[in-house]
UniProtKB/TrEMBL annotation, chain A:
InterPro entries: ARHD_Rieske_2Fe_2S (IPR015881), Rieske_2Fe-2S (IPR017941), Rieske_2Fe-2S_sf (IPR036922), Ring_hydroxy_dOase_asu_C_dom (IPR015879), Rng_hydr_dOase-A (IPR001663). The lineage of its organism: Bacteria, Bacillati, Actinomycetota, Actinomycetes, Pseudonocardiales. PANTHER family: 3-PHENYLPROPIONATE_CINNAMIC ACID DIOXYGENASE SUBUNIT ALPHA, CHOLINE MONOOXYGENASE, CHLOROPLASTIC. This is Rieske 2Fe-2S domain-containing protein. It comes from the Bacteria.
From TrEMBL, chain B:
This is Uncharacterized protein.
C-alpha cells in the first residue's frame, strides 16, 4: 500500500467516538506505528539519576531499539544505539556499568562513551590508524526536562517543550514533592511482560472507569479510599492535555478532604521529618503541595507517573508489551522513600495486586479484540458532558473516556501525516 | 563510604597516591587520589586493562613531565 492509502485507512479506522479493533491486533499497523510514532515523536528514555556518576551507563530502549544512555566524563548525557559500527554486534551486554569506553566483543572495536570510534585492532587492514570515520549510531535529538531524558529519532520537528505542553507541569508537580526539588530513579526496575498491545496499557493508565471493578480486592484489603476517587460522585476530573497526554486530576477530591499526605494514605504525624523539610523548603506553599499530592499522568506514548511509582511502556510486537516499573524516590525524603518503595512492591511488584489485576485485563482485552464481530471499540463515555478549561484542555468526569479520545486524536494525527 | 579490603597508599619519596575500589557508580572503579594535591581520578576496568598492557616505552612517555601535567601550553 502507498503512504496515501494507509493515511486514508487510519483516517477511517480512528473516529472520534470509536476505533477499529484491528488497530490492536495487526502486525502491519504495529510496523506503521514504529515508523510514525516510536521513531518520530519524543519518547521517554531514562532519568539522569540512573547515570549519576561520570562514565556511568545503563541500557534503555525506544520500543524494540536497544539504547545506551551514557554520561561522558564532561557530564553530558548521550543516547547511543547499541550496535557496533563494524558489523553490527551489540556493544553493551550488561544492564548497567561504569566505563569511559565500550569495546565490542566481536573484533575489539572501541568507542568513547560519547559514541566516537577510538580505534580498531590490526589497523593496517584499514590502511592505518585513524582511517575510519565510524561511530555508534545515536538518537538524533536528546532533551531533558527535570532530569527526565527524552529522545527523538526525528532530526527535526517540535521541541520537547512543545511536545510536552502543559503536561510538563505534572512532571514539575512530582519533582516539587522533594524537599530538594529532585527525584531519583534509583530503586531498581521490575519488568512485566504482557501479551497485549501497547495502546491498551497507555489507554488504561488514565481510565478512571475501571478501578472500582478491576481493583476492588486490593482496595478492600488495603481499606483504601482510592476507589471512591473514581466514581460518579467524585469531583476528580480526567483531562486531555493535547499531544496524546492525559491525567486523572484527583486534586479536587484531595483539596476537599484537606489533609496533608492524605493522597498518600498517611498523615503529617507519621512523616514528621519530611513535612518539616517541605515546610522549610517551600514555606506557605508547602500546605497546598502536601494536600494536592503527586500527579497521575500519562505522557504520550510511554511514560506513566502514577503518584508514587513510574512506568515506561515498551512495545515489542503488536501483541507483546513490557511494562518497566520503579518506585519514585524523592531526594532528601528518606521516610517517604521507604514507604514509596514498600507500596510500590505491594501494588506492582512480582506478587503485587494492582498490576496483576490490570495485566489480566490487558491480556483478556487482547484476546477479545481478536474476535471478528463487532469490529469497533467504543470510547464515547462522557463525551456529552465534557468542557474546555481555561488553559484550553478538554476535561471530563472522573470515570469518562476523555483521556482515551485525546490519545486517539493525537494517534490519528501522527498516523496520517 | 569507608575503606575496603583493597585500600591503601602507594607512596615513595616522590609521590603518594591513595588507592581504593569505589562502588558508588554503576560498576566498580578504581579511585586514585594524589595525596599531595588532593586531585582524584577514577579508572574503569577497560582503562586499567589498557594500563596493564601499556608497553614500557609508552609509560615512560607519559612520565615525561612536559607530556601533560607541565606541558607549558
Ligand atoms: S562487529 Fe563489532 S568489532 Fe566487529
Ligand atoms: Fe488499573
Amino acid at each position: 500500500m502507498t503512504h496515501a492509502d494507509t493515511r486514508a485507512r487510519y483516517d477511517e479506522l480512528v473516529q472520534p467516538e470509536r476505533v477499529h479493533g484491528s488497530l490492536y491486533t495487526s502486525p502491519e499497523v504495529f510496523a506503521d506505528e514504529l515508523a510514525r510514532i516510536w521513531y518520530s515523536t519524543w519518547v521517554y528514555v531514562g532519568h539522569v539519576s540512573e547515570v549519576a556518576k561520570p562514565n556511568d551507563y545503563v541500557r534503555k530502549a525506544i520500543g524494540p531499539q536497544d539504547v545506551i544512555m551514557s554520561r561522558s566524563a564532561d557530564g553530558e548525557v548521550h543516547l547511543l544505539l547499541n550496535r557496533c559500527a563494524h558489523r553490527g554486534n551489540l556493544v553493551c551486554e550488561a544492564a548497567a556499568g561504569n566505563s569511559s569506553s565500550f569495546r565490542c566483543a566481536y573484533h575489539g572495536w572501541t568507542y568513547r562513551n560519547s559514541g566516537e570510534l577510538v580505534g580498531y585492532p590490526f589497523h593496517q587492514g584499514y590502511g592505518g590508524r585513524g582511517k575510519l570515520d565510524l561511530g555508534l549510531g545515536r538518537v538524533p535529538r536528546v532533551a531533558v526536562h527535570q532530569g527526565f531524558v527524552f529522545g527523538s529519532f526525528a532530526p527535526d520537528g517540535p521541541s520537547l517543550a512543545e511536545h510536552l505542553g502543559d503536561a510538563a507541569g505534572e512532571i514539575d508537580r512530582l519533582v516539587r514533592l522533594s524537599p530538594e526539588g529532585e527525584i531519583e530513579l534509583t530503586a531498581g526496575w521490575l519488568q512485566h511482560r504482557a501479551r497485549a498491545n501497547w495502546k491498551l496499557l497507555a489507554e488504561n493508565e488514565t481510565d478512571g472507569y475501571h478501578p472500582q471493578f478491576v481493583h476492588a480486592s486490593i482496595f478492600s484489603v488495603a481499606e483504601s479510599g482510592i476507589g471512591a476517587l473514581y466514581g460518579e460522585k467524585s469531583s476528580a476530573v480526567t483531562r486531555a492535555f493535547g499531544h496524546g497526554h492525559s491525567e486523572n486530576d484527583l486534586r479536587p477530591e484531595f483539596r476537599r478532604l484537606g489533609a496533608p499526605l492524605g493522597w498518600f494514605g498517611t498523615t503529617e504525624e507519621r512523616m514528621p521529618g519530611y513535612v518539616a523539610a517541605m515546610r522549610a523548603a517551600h514555606g506557605e506553599a508547602a500546605q497546598e503541595i502536601l494536600v494536592e499530592g503527586a500527579p497521575h499522568v500519562m505522557i504520550f506514548p510511554n511514560l506513566f507517573i502514577a503518584e508514587i511509582q513510574m512506568f515506561t511502556i515498551q512495545p515489542l510486537a503488536h501483541d507483546v508489551t513490557v511494562q518497566h516499573v520503579t518506585a519514585v524516590q524523592l531526594k532528601g525524603a528518606p521516610e517517604m522513600n521507604r514507604r514509596m518503595l514498600q507500596q510500590c512492591v505491594g501494588s506492582v511488584g512480582p506478587a503485587g495486586l494492582l498490576l496483576a489485576d490490570d495485566t489480566e485485563m490487558y491480556e483478556r482485552n487482547q484476546v477479545g479484540l481478536g474476535e471478528l464481530r463487532p469490529e469497533w471499540v467504543d470510547v464515547r463515555r462522557g463525551s456529552h458532558r465534557e468542557h474546555v478549561d481555561e488553559r484550553g484542555h478538554t476535561v471530563g468526569g472522573a470515570t469518562d473516556e476523555t483521556a482515551m479520545r485525546g490519545f486517539w486524536a493525537h494517534y490519528r494525527e501522527l498516523m496520517t501525516r | 563510604m569507608g575503606g575496603g579490603v583493597g585500600d591503601g597508599v602507594v607512596g615513595n619519596e616522590f609521590a603518594d597516591v591513595a588507592v581504593r575500589v569505589d562502588t558508588t557508580a554503576n560498576s566498580p572503579r578504581l579511585r586514585l587520589e594524589d595525596l599531595r594535591t588532593g586531585r582524584v581520578r577514577f579508572l574503569d576496568a577497560l582503562e586499567l586493562e589498557t594500563l596493564v598492557w601499556l608497553p614500557e616505552g609508552h609509560l615512560v612517555q607519559l612520565l615525561d613531565p612536559s607530556a601533560d601535567r607541565w606541558s607549558g601550553a
